[in-house]
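PROTOCOL LOG
Step 1. Enter all chains and additional molecules of the complex.
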Amino acid sequence: MSAPSYPEAILISERTIGRLAQYRRILTELVRDNLETVHSHQLALRCGGSAAQVRRDLMVIGAEGSPNKGYKCAKLLASLAEFLTQPGTQKVALVGIGNLGRALLSYSHKQQPGLLIVAAFDIAPDKTNKVIDGCRCFHIDTLESVIKEQNIKVAIIAVPGEAAQLVADRLAIAGVRGIVNFAPAPLHLPPSVFVENIDVTMSLEKVVYFAAKGTQSERNKSA
Amino acid sequence: MSAPSYPEAILISERTIGRLAQYRRILTELVRDNLETVHSHQLALRCGGSAAQVRRDLMVIGAEGSPNKGYKCAKLLASLAEFLTQPGTQKVALVGIGNLGRALLSYSHKQQPGLLIVAAFDIAPDKTNKVIDGCRCFHIDTLESVIKEQNIKVAIIAVPGEAAQLVADRLAIAGVRGIVNFAPAPLHLPPSVFVENIDVTMSLEKVVYFAAKGTQSERNKSA
DNA sequence: GGATGTGAAAGTCTTCACAGCG
DNA sequence: CGCTGTGAAGACTTTCACATCC
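Step 2. Run joint prediction.
Step 3. Record the structure below.
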């Protein structure tokens, strides 16, 4: 009769996971600055949410803070790191070495946390078989073999909309389980593959609308 | 007693506006391909939503389709264009001419709809006083004067996180009413300024989590 | 028959408010 | 006291289901 391991029965919403990732980023800074403890309202201020929201989010990972002193930064950061997958642990592939792709590569190269792009693919021969920002670039024909060889489970799609579905299908078959999709087209994939869409044009149009029309108040959903 | 003009009393949610922008993009393609009519379930397939969702969204702009024939593409597109602000109408400023900024500039240059960046700013002298992808680049010192002169109401922030709040404050004072923020930091601004955050790192971490852990099904929120 | 338009139900997410504790 | 932890309420979104019309 060993102690039951974390049931993990309750499944956590996408929004919550996103905010937990933010909290981790903030806590990384706090720990770097040698802060001992932090209150929920302080975290709220730094991520643009409410204190109640922060407390509820931290509840789901079983974090515990003491009244009047708040949460211990180091301990909380450790809990978050254990709960979320450690950044840099997961290798990421990038498909599409255009302007956006190169911007992501330079991020990956400089940034300290997350975003460890280990392989990039493109269809244009002049972009392949070289190293950009420390990342090896391959021709798209080798996508399946490289993905399998390196056991890559996460990919970023930064190709034109017309090519996105085809790329996504190939990624899924090669074993990728999660995709960040910058193409402005929905990907139809089996539910075993998680897809996060980032549609810059749509976001811009939203902002244009609200800038011109009604004054919606600032909301921080950061997605 | 004139007929009451559209009350516009009901304010429309951010999510809905985002989807309406997607519908417009899809309809632009349909009209280009000379499609006469379209059904709600066809739109749903092409944007990754449900048919009921599409119909409800179109309800808010008072679109009308006929049973069995669906919606008239051209008419619906016109309604959407009238409702959303016409793309290209609003001039957009870009702050931060790094890799991401340049990727956005090249988009702006090539893409047909939306995204008309007319001025870019940076603090580095070697990036300013030139033209990149058809967009004039200025030193950040001239931000206020250029924004006011050109009457720009929408801006994109693509600077490092530490500088984001300062830039946002200056933009708001210069008269900007809407901001797309790529910096991973919340902007604290008066509610008269609409802010849309795009946090690429956070999205990536979400995907890493769901790729590794539980299999959440694909959801298309495209934000 | 097969689609739209829409009230109502169901579901999801956020905020409130307060007990309990240091 | 002020803050955490959390049930309960509230607000918002999506889906259902069906009357209605071509």
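Step 4. Note key features.
Residues 1-8 of chain B have pLDDT under 50 and may be disordered.
Chain B touches chain A through 74 residues (CB under 8 Å).
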